[in-house]
Amino acid sequence: MTIVPRSRLYRLDPAGFGTAFVESLTSFIMRLAAAHHLTPGQLVRTSLTALMRSSRGADLQIGEIELTAAFANGVRSGARMWLRAIEEATTHDDLARLTALPWARVLSGYHLLRETMAHCPLCLEEMAEAGLVYEPLLWAIRLVTVCPKHERVLELACRQCGRTQAAFRWNGRPGICVKCRVWLGGADASLVTAARNELQVSQAIASMLAAPPRPEVDPELIGSALEAGMADLGVTQSAFALAAGVAVPSVSAWRRGLGKIGLPGIVAMCAVGGWDVPAFLDGRVVTVVDGPAPMSSPLRRRHLFDWDFVRQRLVEHGGDEPPITQVRLAAELGVTVGWLRKQLPGETQVLIDRRHEWEIARAKARIEMLLALVVSTTLRLLESGRKASAREVECHFPSNVSLQEPRLMNAWRQTRLEWQLARDETRSKAA
Ligand SMILES: [Zn+2]
Ligand SMILES: [Zn+2]
pTM for this structure? Predict the structure, then answer.
């Protein structure tokens, strides 16, 4: 029987696709719910929860799903889970562009999304006039503080009741305050002058959203770009790190392609180098004339004040599979390993232990796999009339494996011995 793929939900088209104002996944789900005359919460419970459970195992609780909604626009596994469920339910296959997932190979989740959704009242007003109100992914990005189109500071809360708006509102709609239900748009909203630098950063990120990197771009490619860019500038690593306000060990790790970089680190380094942000995230160094000026980096400020935030990011890595290494973790948080162990010893130790256990399990699985390979290869050669010498058997192994490893050597000897004994026994019976 052939099962024809069928969409469980309307195949609603995302707004602003392929532009800097591409719709966020959370906005898309809220609009999808409205199209079905459901609240977003009802839509999730009736159509999406089952899909998420089937992709993550049946024990996923609705509460856990609710917790991940805040990260649905991001780069972590929660975003992947939401994306898969929505794509399956709508038979779309290109909705990754509604999240930061196209950058997931190179961009860490650190300092990427704000906890709530910002908005530009002027943009909302224009959308209402055009008959399509949605919340762009741009408004979910923490470093975007200014509307690149209207050059006005983004609003972080409802002007009427002061309530901030979660990106995914279980009872909400794009452009409407979740608490007092007032329209968040407004052409007469008083203008707050934007700082030039913040506008430039917001514009750089807007152009980034319009141009995702090639799928093959990885931390190593970014590392090479950083290396080439720094060589071009002719600065030392420590001078560069100081100017960008990031830790020297982080720059050193990133140059070697170790680990992803947070968006604040990317923006700060591009500002120092005068590099185009989207091109850099595509592994290329392109000099821009009018980029943002180097500023005091959010990373540096965070060193001094935002301890809870670092701790929270660290705890979030507790569920990584495979568990993150210390070096990578430190690089991702923009700090040194020593500093991490000194400031957050307990939390760091938990991650170190998890990684240690994982490495032991991996080593065990490897040796078991190799033992099975030794036995099967030796037997196969003996059965086909070969001598199955050490050298002969080794020819069938991956190049980094040899019978020098004592356990493998023993298994080889044992297998040959047993085979010979069995053969002798058969012969004597026959005689
Ligand atoms: Zn705007
Ligand atoms: Zn309100």
Answer: 0.67
